[in-house]
Structure formats: structure tokens, C-alpha cells
Amino acid sequence: MSNPWNGKAVLEVFWWNCWNTNYPHDWYTFVAKLAPRIAAMGFDGIWTPPPCKDRPSDNTSPASNNMGYTPFDYYDLGLKNQIRSVYTRFGDQDSFLRLVAVAHANGLEVYPDIVLDHCASGDLDPSSPFESTASEAYTLMQPKGFAGAGRWPRNWLDFHANPQHWNGTGDWVASNGGPDFCYQGRCTDSGAGDQNCAARANARAWLTWFVKQTGVDGFRFDDVKGFPPEVVEDLLYNAMGSGLEYFCVGEYVTGAASDVDAWAGATLNRSGTFDYPLRFALADMVAQNGYSDVGSLPSQQQLNRFKTVPFVNNHDNYDGQVGSWMEADNPRTQLAYAVAITVDGSPQFFYADLFRNVAPWVNGTTADAIPSRPWVENLVWCHQKLSFKSGDYFVRYQQSQQLLILERGARAIVAINNDGSAWHDAWISTAFAPGTQLHDYSGSRPDDIWTNQDAWVQIAVPPLSYSIWGPAGVTGGFSPASRRTVQQFEMDDDLGDSDAASLGYGGKVIPGTYRSGGGIWPAAGTRVNLSVYADAPQQVDLQVVLAGATPVLRQSGSCTANVPLAASFMVAAEGRHIVQAKLSGAAAAAARIYIKVDYQGPATSTLF
């Protein structure tokens, strides 16, 4: 049974400038190969890099050189031949969609990084009054489409400063990392509409398209201090519906708990935040080398914990950009992780902490070869097997600068000792029943202990160590339930790319010639279900071909906006299946259609 939506164990599966020579420009495939290991460790989901086509700041390098944090074309997930590359740094659209399907087949959710603020990837906009200032002038973004112009073009009016924010001051006008998007208006579900904000309407339409196209499960929003929180609320309401039970977190870098609490509240709790106040406190504990007050740590966590995400490290501090790095092999980093997994929220682990991201594995490993840190695996195991987040949170002991004891009600007792030379102990009350046998699953203590007749217990922790006490007898590994993936290909002239070097997806369907909507990678021996919709009634010929050559399905019929042309087939051989369509009538006008595909990806494969 998976963890609750606000208590998942999440792994960030990249670092800044991540690279693997065995999978050049295809980090997605390396992560897909890692997926079975990640699932077997007990993780619930993975945080993936930004998926949209980026442009390097020198405007001469290919898009595949950049990390994706200054998007040029939101609708290019690595399928168009633009910015001197078809793929992004992490792969093409096919490999990203395959990663989602493989992750789902392993019982993992997928949370891509979403960048809605800074976009330093444009061309010089001759209409901009700031033409002489390069940082403000490079705001013209004209993405490609199948028949020419692409969807969501932008110019200087979409950025600060503009006629609505001419003086460059006030809320949401600061520029961090390049020209800064201007979002105005209020959420659609508040009844206030867009207030003529093109950027808001375009962002809303894009995220809704993105969720349907990819089948992802949640999000990490980058640099949310740069635009109003109502934008995130608006987009999530439209893309994910009115419910709240999905993983979503925003990067709001601050040491003030009141700031992150207010931001999460302003999104109506559709998104949580990384718990930066707690993270800064944990970093201080590690840096002060035994001279910090660990008893004060619980008071540092944010109060709005509906979707909070405690963490220790991520790609930003690993690269030295945001906050200090907590070295994974520092014993106090282990203490920091023990606290982060125990407090309320969905703890986020980092690739370079879990895996030994050093030579000889850092840039050329295989998924099977790179070693992991046993203590990180053990913390994930404890969090999951002892069902931490199904028990209430208690601070049981904090009257010492060196000893902190926390409990997840009747699930686990977690204690850290920050003293490098002496044991520390304390008697605590617990939510366990009297006479409960408790085992230390961290391995720091070999002997079991029992709660007394009043359900109290004495917790003793070795120097510079932690312990995790839970009911004795818990064993076993993880085999999360596999699930299917649903992805939808919208075929229109302003999507995709007809360039011979591109993946060749997109364009309205026409008579006489099949056009390709997209590619999927189903597992052999499984059934693929397809549903074709159209804005207006159409007669459509549907075809699926394996590896671009062998037809495995051909079916014709009518479809409307509400009644689809339905088809299905059994997969004889694993591989990339291209979904294609054309109009049946020789004189029919070009039409936009939507092809929804429901399929089972392979959990493992030797074919990619």
C-alpha cells in the first residue's frame, strides 16, 4: 500500500549538469534503467529535471547543453529541431514519455520540475523599449510548430517591465535569472477570470496539455517567489482538478516559516513548499560540529504542513547555489536525514546522497553498477515499512542540546545524539501499548527494549548516532503495484515539427497521408487501448506501427468531442509504437484530433 499523498518518500533523480556517457543526452533512459532499484528501495516517486526545450545564454550552443531552467518552448519536450537540437539535455520526448511509463510500471510516481518564472532564452525583441539593455531585450520567443508558428509565442509585453508594471517596482516584478514573466489576474475557480492576462491563460493551457500529454502525477515548481501564488493555484486547479490529494511542492527559499506558510496557504494548499526553515536549521546543526541545540529543531519546521517537504540536500546546494551542502558522508548529515524523515511531510532524498556520485561512477556508470549508501536505504526502509506518516507526530524529548527524541504515534521512535563522545538517554512516554517490544531498525543498538506498564520507555543513543525504534518483527522488502499509463497526443498545426530531423510528430490530420501523433513504449503481452476524439465529427483512419514500419493496428470509424473512435490491440513485441491517423474522406478539411492511449510500460527492459 502506497504512502498518503502528503507522506511520500521522494527521490530527486538528477544533479546540476548531470551526465552519463553511456546515455549521452538521454538521462531519462538512465533513470528508467534505475527505476526498478529505486522502487525496490521503497520510494514512492521521483522528481525529474525540467522537461521543456531551453536555450543556453550564449545563444550559440545547442539546447542539449542547458538544464532547462530558462524555457524557450514549453510545448517542445524534445521533439522539435530548434535551438540547434531535437532533444533536451535529458533526452527526447519519446524517452521522457517512456520514463513515465516505466516508472508507473515499477509503482513510482513522476514529478517533473516546472519553471514558470525566469526565461532568459529569447531573441532580441526589436519592439522592446529596452532594446539597449540586453537582459531586458532578449524576450522574443517564437517557437516552431508543425506548419510554421508554434503555440505560446512571447514578446516583451509578457515580461517585466511592461505597461502594467512600467516602473519595475512592486510585488512580483523582481527579475531573478533573466527576464521575468508578468502574471496578472486571479484564479479561474474564484470567478474573477483572467483580467486580460495572456501569460496566465497560456500557462494554464500549457500545464493542462502537459499533464494529458505525459501522464505525470505531480510537480515541483521552481522559484515560486518570482510570481503570485495564485498562478500556481490557478494552473493546478485546471490541470489536476479540484482535489488536493497529489504531490506538489514549490521552491520558496527563505528562513522564515511564516513566509512559506503564507505561500502554501495562498495556493489553497494545492501546493506545499520545501521546508527551507527546517533545512537551514539542519544545515547549522551539521556545520556547528556538535555545538548546536538539537532540542530547538522541532520549532524550526513550518506550521503549514499540509504538503510540506522536509529535505537535506538538492541540486542547488550540491552546486553551491542555494544554501550550504551537507556532505553525505558526514555522520551529522545522517542525523539531519533522520529528523527530516520523521517530522511531518513528504521527505525528499537526493540522488548524490543515495548514490555514490563520485569517480568512477559519476559520469559513466550503469544503473546496476553505481553503489548506494546503505544508511540512506535504511532510512527509506524505516520510513516506509514502519509507516511513519500513518502515526501522529510527537516531540517526546527536547530538553537537551545534544539529544532529541521524536515519535510517530505507535509507529516509530526516532532519536538523535549530536554528542561526538558520550551516550545520551531519557525516559519518555509513548503511544505504544504497555509491554510493547521495540527493535532499533537503524542498527545502532543490537538489544531490544520494552515499554513499561505505563507505556514509558528509556531511549539511549550512542555518540554521534541515531536510533529508530519500532515494533519488533517488521521485515521484508518492497514490491509496489504496477500501474498503467495514460497519455494523450493532441494533433494540431501549432504543435510538433515537420522538419526532417525532428521526431515528425504533430500537425492536423488530413486525408490521404497518415500523420504521427506520438510514440509509446508498451510491454509485450499487454493490451493497448486507444480513444480518438475530435472537436467536430470526423471519420478517421487510425494506425499504430512498431518501430516506424510494421502496422500492428488499423481501424477506421467516426469520432466526436464526446464519443470516441475506440480501438485496442495486444502487444506482440516490446518497442516504440508510433500512433498515426488520417482523415477517411478524400475531400475532408484538415482537423485537430486527440488520441488518448492507455497502456502498460515495461518494468525492466533490455531494449533501451
UniProtKB/TrEMBL annotation:
<feature type="domain" description="Glycosyl hydrolase family 13 catalytic">
    <location>
        <begin position="8"/>
        <end position="373"/>
    </location>
</feature>
<dbReference type="InterPro" id="IPR015237">
    <property type="entry name" value="Alpha-amylase_C_pro"/>
</dbReference>
<dbReference type="GO" id="GO:0005975">
    <property type="term" value="P:carbohydrate metabolic process"/>
</dbReference>
<keyword id="KW-0326">Glycosidase</keyword>
<keyword id="KW-0378">Hydrolase</keyword>
<dbReference type="InterPro" id="IPR006047">
    <property type="entry name" value="GH13_cat_dom"/>
</dbReference>
<protein>
    <submittedName>
        <fullName>Alpha-amylase</fullName>
        <ecNumber>3.2.1.1</ecNumber>
    </submittedName>
</protein>
<dbReference type="GO" id="GO:0004556">
    <property type="term" value="F:alpha-amylase activity"/>
</dbReference>
<dbReference type="InterPro" id="IPR017853">
    <property type="entry name" value="GH"/>
</dbReference>
<dbReference type="InterPro" id="IPR013780">
    <property type="entry name" value="Glyco_hydro_b"/>
</dbReference>
<dbReference type="Pfam" id="PF09154">
    <property type="entry name" value="Alpha-amy_C_pro"/>
</dbReference>
<dbReference type="Pfam" id="PF00128">
    <property type="entry name" value="Alpha-amylase"/>
</dbReference>
